Amino acid sequence: MPTTVNELTAENGVKVYLVGTAHFSRESQADVIKTIRSVKPNVVMVELCQNRASILSLDEELLMKEASNITFQKISHSVKENGLVQGLLQILLLNLSAHITKQLGMAPGGEFRAAFKEVKTLPGCKIQLGDRPIAVTLQRALGALNWFQRLKLAWCLITSSGSISPEDVEKCKQKDMLEEVLQEMTGEFPALSRVFVQERDIYLAHSLKMASLLSMQDFNKHQNNHSAPTVVGVVGIGHCPGIINVWGTDHNVASLLIIPPPTMVGRFLKLFIRVTFFGCLGYSFYRIARFTHGFIVSNYSYIYHI
């Protein structure tokens, strides 16, 4: 097994092989392929939600083009679907992903596409989407930050333009480098670390347990297809320590799907932004109408005197 694979055992005895990956890594794709071919699982869980499932089947070149091209249409669609603040945050995250895509010449999610292709070669094997919906994660993350922290986060995402190489990506799979990155994130934005990492560790661990139940059911129905009920989980390597840590414990997963209500300050600022926007829009129309009216009146007067 690759060194990035951890073996877990579910309560029902199902073996779970957890593959830790870097999202822009050719080596991670090879690790996923080798693991799936070695254990021949009947369920493969990937760190994706329904809203991001399209990256499993889209062409690599098309994904690279889409990932590296942030258009006004994408921004408008994101704001319309997710609201102003959350939509802009999602665009900033996409912009950071686009920056990495351009530098590495590689579309994100290659390890998930590799897993999906391998699943299609195994009779009866199923793919399971195991991550929490991205919209819930973003709303919980924003709800955990005050407005100063949101502005600081936006500034960090806007100015994140440092260079990165394939070697840097592979280093992120090393334990000491991984711990350093997580500690840096915790120091800057502890609330984000809790929402993006710790909460999703719990959610992904729960998804793996659900996959183990599905695996056992499938094994009981089709024992001739598999020597033993097994699951392969494909997740970002930053989630592996947390998943292993919470594996034998129970958590209230439903509470991780609750979206916090907006604060009084948040509602006021949201209203202020809307009023300002429509006020500026209305004033612009007023200026245009006034100019048009003056132009028509002056030309009518000129024609009348002729």
UniProtKB/TrEMBL annotation:
<protein>
    <recommendedName>
        <fullName>TraB domain-containing protein</fullName>
    </recommendedName>
</protein>
<dbReference type="Pfam" id="PF01963">
    <property type="entry name" value="TraB_PrgY_gumN"/>
</dbReference>
<dbReference type="InterPro" id="IPR002816">
    <property type="entry name" value="TraB/PrgY/GumN_fam"/>
</dbReference>
<dbReference type="InterPro" id="IPR046345">
    <property type="entry name" value="TraB_PrgY-like"/>
</dbReference>
